[in-house]
Amino acid sequence: MSFQARNSNESEGTFIKSLLEKIAQDVQALSYRQLQMVNERDEYIKSKKSSHASSSRGNELYGEQSLKNEYYQPPPRRVRKEKKESPREVRIDLPHFHGKENVEIYLDWEMKVEQLFACHKVIEENKVPLATLSFQGNAMY
Description:
By secondary structure, this protein is mainly alpha-helical. It has four helices and no strands.
């Protein structure tokens, strides 16, 4: 290795070393300034804590415009009411009952009508009037 090559390597090394030292100093200065700004912000917030508009002032330090101010009121919350199963008016085609004296025909008709009422969720108060609508002939009298 020649004298000139070794000398240029040494000068590059010292240059890089001085450059790294300068970068380290700059980083340290930035860290110190950032810490100082955080402390100033905290002190400002503490001093304004008792005032009404402290939250909007705190955000201004960061350059943000706060939507909230001392007159801001959030919109009222809407409460959803639970839907109750209300009785529905539905069209039910009930089988006709003619009033014959055969008990099995009546029991079959009654079973079919009860199934239809259960399917359509008919309330108790409406069952008798609806059932009597399907009466025909002697059953109607």
